[in-house]
Amino acid sequence: MTRYTNEYLRGLVREDRVHRSIYTDPEIFELEMEKIFGRVWLYVGHDSQIPNPGDFHCTWLARQPVVMTRHLDGTVHVLFNRCGHRGARVLNQECGNARVFTCMYHGWSFRPNGELSGVPMRRDFPETVLVEPRSGMARLPRVESYRGFVFASLDPAVPPLLEYLGEARCGIDELVDRSPQGEIEFWAGCHRYEYNGNWKLQFENMADMYHPPACHASTVGPDGRQFSRRPGNRGASAPFFADNGEAIVAQTGVRGFANGHSSEASLFREEQAGGIWDDYRALMVRRYGEERTADILKNRRHSMTLFPSVDVLIAQTSVRVIRPIGVDRTEVRVYPVRLKGAPPEISIDIVRFVNLTHAAASFIQSDDLEAFERCQQGLASGGTDWVLVARGFGQELDEGNGVLFGDRSSEVGQRFQHYAWRDLMSAADVR
C-alpha cells in the first residue's frame, strides 16, 4: 500500500511550480505507471508499420510488452505480447511477418488477431480451457486510431480517443495533410536512444521555447544554423536571433491544451519555396487547390505533444515516442515520415534533416540529453524542493475550447502537462 494519499499527490503540483520528488521518487514513478500510463490513451504505432497481413510491430506500454498486428483480414489489433499458456513473451523480434505467432517455450501458436491457433499434444488439455479467450494472446481493452496513428489503453473505461485528443488532434492533421495523397508512411527506421533522466524532462522540453538560445547556442547561432538545411531556397531557415542580437526564438508562443497536450509555435516565418519544393507544392495544388494548399503549408506550429507518450514533429516531419523505463531512465525513438505522393527527394531531405536535429549524436538532441541528465542529477540535491514553471504565468490568452496561448516562450505548455499529471495522480481509484 502506498504511503502517498491522493491529497498529498495533488499537492506536489502548484499553479506555477512542481515538487522535485515527481522526477526522483521511485514510488511516485510506480504510481505513474498505474494512474497515468495505465488509464489514458497511449500511442502504439502507425498502421504503415504493418502494411501487410501477418505484419507485427512490438513495443511497450506502461512497461508491458505489446504487439500491434495486422490480421489476415486486414484489421489492426493490439495484443499483450504474452503466451496464454505459461506467460512467455511470444514475439522477440521488434517487427516482422508471420501467418502464426509461435511461443518458443512450449510451441503454442496464435493468429495475428490473438486467437489460439495450435497446441502441441492438445488432447492432454481440457478442451474447455483451450477455448477460453484468455488462452490466446489477449487483446488490449481499448484500441482506436486517428488518421493512421494507433492508440491503445489499458483501461476499458477510458473516454473515446477523439475526446481525449480534443483540439490537439490538429497537430496530426497538420502533418498528414502535407501529403499530396493525404497519407503518411513510417519508412526509414528510427533513431533510438536512452538517457539517464525522468520521462517528464523530455516532455517539458517539447513545450520549451525558452531554452534554445542557451542550450543550443552552438547550433542556432550565426555560425551553426542547422535548421537552415531544409528543402527549398527560401523560407527554409529559422532566424533565431535578430540583427540586434535578441533571441527571436525566445519570443515564440506556446499553447496548452486539455488533458496535458501542448504545442510550440513555428520557428519558421515563411513558406518554403524554390527547387524541389516548388514541384512538391504543385502536386499539392493539383490535389487541394491553391487556397487549401496555402493553408496546409502555413508554418503554424513546430510540434504537437500528445501527453503522455508521443510528439508530432511538424517542422522535422517526424514522430517522437517517449517510453519511461525507470524513474531515472527513459527511451526516445524518432521516426522520419514519408509524405505519400511527394517527390522522393523530399523524403530523403526529411531523413537528412532528422539526422541533423534528432539523432543521438545530432546537433540539437545531444544538447537536450545533456540537459536532462544534468537536471536529474541536480534534482537529487537539496537546496529547494520546488521547480519553477512560472514563465508567462497569468498572461495567457484564452483561445476557447480549453486552449490557452502564451507568447514569448511561455511555460504554459509545461504547466498544462503538470496539471494533467496532478489530476490523474490524485483521481479517486474507482476500481
Description:
- By secondary structure, the protein is α+β, with helices and mostly antiparallel strands.
- It is built from 14 helices and 22 strands.
- The protein has helices at residues 6-10, 21-24, 26-35, 127-130, 161-165, 170-176, 199-205, 212-215, 217-220, 276-288, 290-296, 344-358, 365-379, 412-425, and strands at 17-19, 42-46, 55-61, 64-70, 76-80, 95-97, 101-102, 109-110, 116-118, 142-146, 149-153, 184-186, 191-195, 254-256, 262-265, 301-306, 310-313, 318-326, 329-339, 386-388, 397-400, 403-406.
- The strands form 5 sheets. Strands 12, 13, 14, 15, 16, 17, 18, 19, 21 and 22 form a 10-stranded antiparallel β-sheet that branches. A 4-stranded antiparallel β-sheet has the order 5-4-3-6, with no helix packed on it. A 3-stranded antiparallel β-sheet has the order 2-11-10, with no helix packed on it.
- Strand 16 (301-306) and strand 17 form a beta hairpin.
- The two termini are 15 Å apart.
- The model has no long low-confidence stretch (mean pLDDT 91).
